[in-house]
Design brief:
With 197 residues, the protein is an alpha+beta fold. The protein is built from 3 helices and 8 strands; from the N terminus they run ααββββββββα. The protein has a two-stranded parallel ribbon. It has a two-stranded antiparallel sheet with strand order 2-3. It starts with 13 loop residues before the first helix and ends in a 15-residue tail after the last helix.
Length: 197
């Protein structure tokens, strides 16, 4: 059966395959005793669904221990390697702290930067290049929050425009927030631990 004989939901997209391959790389590098079993299960999923790499039901050759791990008995070809780069680029968004309303703009920070968070000064000892991340640290009040379960980057203004948009870049992106109008309570939000930036 070829990929073209299947409906769209019967095939894995390249992004889904890349994500599964990335997961295999992480599992293989772990110290888990059951890592070979998990890798074999993911390989079975990849083999069961048609896509760019394999036709349905076709299996690859035995894995190379240098590519995954010694003693792995899963069936896959050496072309199945985890991507070296993230699968997708972070999404540029206007980000505002859910606690204090401060706009969050991500940018690289130099080694000599001092950040004041509620009276505590944090000194950076090395330059930080701002890699893709999901959780964000508010430099004004110090909470960490996750605006989405994908990598996002806080920007000063939005560079895209939709046909139904009424806001323009010229109007600006920073506004005063009156919490009494929104009905929001300051204690209604809690921070999420994670990969803060």
């Amino acid at each position: 059966m070829s990929t073209t004989d299947n409906r769209a939901h019967d095939a894995l997209t390249r992004g889904q395959r890349d994500t599964l391959e990335l997961a295999i790389g992480y599992i293989a590098s772990s110290e888990r005793n059951d890592r070979h079993e998990h890798i074999a299960r993911i390989r079975a999923i990849l083999s069961a669904f048609p896509g760019e790499y394999l036709e349905a039901g076709q299996s690859g050759s035995a894995c190379d221990p240098a590519d995954v791990c010694a003693g792995c008995r899963c069936g896959y070809g050496t072309s199945y390697r985890a991507p070296d780069e993230p699968v997708s680029a972070p999404i540029p968004m206007l980000l505002f702290c859910p606690k204090c309303g401060e706009q969050h703009i991500d940018a690289p920070e130099p080694a000599d930067a001092d950040i004041d968070v509620d009276g505590t000064v944090i000194s950076a000892t090395s330059e930080w290049t701002n890699p893709p991340h999901r959780s964000h640290l508010c430099h004004a009040c110090g909470i960490v929050w996750r605006p989405a379960d994908v990598a996002t980057v806080g920007v000063a203004t939005i560079a895209t425009r939709g046909t139904a948009d009424t806001w323009t870049v010229e109007q600006g992106s920073i506004a005063e927030i009156d919490l009494s109008v929104t009905g929001r309570r300051d204690d209604a939000y809690t921070s999420v631990e994670g990969d803060a930036s």
